User: Fold these one by one.
Assistant:
Number 1:
Amino acid sequence: MSTLKAVRGTRDLLPPETELWNFVEETARRVFARYNFGEVRTPIFEDTQLFARGVGEETDIVSKEMYTWEDRARAQSEKAQSLTLRPENTAGVVRAYIEHKMGETGLLQKLFYIGPQFRRERPQKGRYRQFWQIGAEVIGPPSAGSESPLRDAEVLEMLATFLDELGIAGWRLEINSVGSATDRPRYLAALREALAPVKHLMCEDNQRRAETNPLRVLDSKDPNDQEIIEKLPKIADYLDESSKEHFAAVLAALDRCGVPYAVNPRLVRGLDYYTRTTFEFTHGGLGAQNALLGGGRYDGLSEAIGGPKAPGIGFAMGEDRLILTLQAQAAQKPAPADAYIAPLGEALNPAALELTRDLRRAGLRIELGDGSFRLKKSFEFGNKLARKIVLLGEDELQSGILTVKDFATGEQVKVPRAELAQSLTA
Ligand code: HAM
């Protein structure tokens, strides 16, 4: 029988790597709390229509990459429904915002999430079919200030702070404005006009996009089409005064806070809901899939899925890519335990478990050996797993004085049991 393996594009996360995942998530929770965000958890699958209407039918995500199935009706009263594993979380958060009438508080909602997303993409380094995002959304009625460029700058400043606290060096922020709903038709008309005489030279996908959704041509990665794309009109030239002012205000606040950025006029991003500010943080160490995170403003998304006017801005980080970057930065060593407890003989196992329990309750990280091991084996295991080894023999048990050896210095000392926890943290 052939052995069963994790499905292509999915993977198991194992210790010690999971420790790094927890560190990233703890850092996110700590930093986001300082900015007054609360956690939201939405379902992993949603009505397919949510993504079709929210993310956009013509996007790669919706047209090619979703895991969609027809859910059977289980009772006569139930209708068969098309369901989809979420390819991203913004549409789900906005649906929840609408469903729970969160706008009626009159306040901005600041929500963050951590969870798996699913896209049927071609797997490669940094690109998986099940991947994890850590994201956040700021959304609310315009009267709560949800359209203010200050919100965009605050989110970007939070991201810079988060990446710095995480210890990711060398990130780069690219930013653009894709204009408001009123700028868009003028720009699209100009794009269509520019594409008309050249589109037959482009790849099949771009020929189709030129008709249905010309903005998507701009983020095409097809190498043969880049020369044509380079010469297409730039959205910056089609922004009206208020969009220009909005973008300038975002950049001015970033300048004031010392958040470095580069304006990239071709950054349109792969989702249709974006308006005005869009951005990506990239990292050179990631290779082809170099986007650590992406985000932007989506002032019309709530209305597009049947809700009230609720402008918003947010981002999602690829957690897998944050981990890859951290691992590349410092060849990862598992954090050693504070001590390895070595009972000298099986009869001492219960006493060793008791000692281990007390040390763990004192907050220490302890590995417990086994009294059936020879001393040499205990030292070998101890050296691999912990900074120090504590020997627990009959003498130690009687006298209450334990022998502790430090693997790094080779120093061996006798420590009274009452002082053991403190001496192991030193
Ligand atoms: P996105 O650019 O599609 O935006 O994804 C955000 C990030 O998720 C990417 O920058 C990347 O780090 C990670 N990512 C995407 N696909 C994969 C994959 N197949 N494997 C590994 N990582 C991946 C969004 O999802 C928007 N919802 C972001 C947003 C929030 N915009 C406003 N609010």
Number 2:
Amino acid sequence: MITLATSPVQIRPMNDKISEQSGSVVSGHSRYDEAWRIDLSDFPAVRAEGEVYSPTADQLERLRRVSEILEDASAEEILRWAIDTFYPSLTMATAFGPEGCVILSILAELQPKVRVFNLDTGYQFPETLQLRDRIAQKYGIDVVLAKPELSVEEYEKCHGGPVYKVNPDRCCFDRKVQVLKREVVGYRAWISGIRRDQSPHRANAPIVGWDKKFGLVKINPLARWTKNQVWQRIMDEDIPYNPLHDQGYPSIGCWPCTRPVLLGEDERAGRWSGTAKTECGLHLVDDQPSPPPTMYGQI
Ligand code: SF4
């Protein structure tokens, strides 16, 4: 049962026109109606790369309340709310994992014009990039490849070798975190495909929350889903997925930092295997300092 907070929040009248702006259909939401009525119009877009807005306690309380209301809503309902509330100032990052593919299949129905981007580090598997084309063919969604400033060749030359070998935190920071900072400029909210049961870091991910690292609202429509639920949806609806999943890779990132997992291993055990690193830094809740320079030398 949903327990609602008693503190006052700003409520938007139900005849609000925002759904007409988005072009999405607001269905009879019944029990989730209140999420649509909580006014989030004062959440600004990210104004410049790395410039992080600090929300007020009242704003955070409204986000918490929306998240609470949508806690047991379907992914469709959560995404419909996100579109009605933020589109066109809504974006999504995907690495074309199974969760991302499920979300893209839903966006194709609700609002295929949401801008979706992939952090193209230059180290992705060819199968991952081919999946982008299959998604475009099936759903008409062209995922933008967001690249770091330096090509792989330039980056490795600049650092004297592959940074992922000596300082993967630095490599992820330069080739993923910094690129995401750039890509969210101009947007008020972003969608991610993380699930709570993927790792301890993700266990407390809200459905809707404030991303203090990137300075905008973050929506996790599959936070409550299990891996089995994701794959059931993929099978039921014939959603395209990365063929490497059939070759022992449950979680796929860049090729230098991903290996197949063995029977009984955790689904993310193949990521940065042999190191203490478990996350690329995009979804870490706490503020993380910039990683140190590499042993190769300058940054
Ligand atoms: Fe670099 Fe590996 Fe991170 Fe990819 S996953 S950005 S190769 S450290």
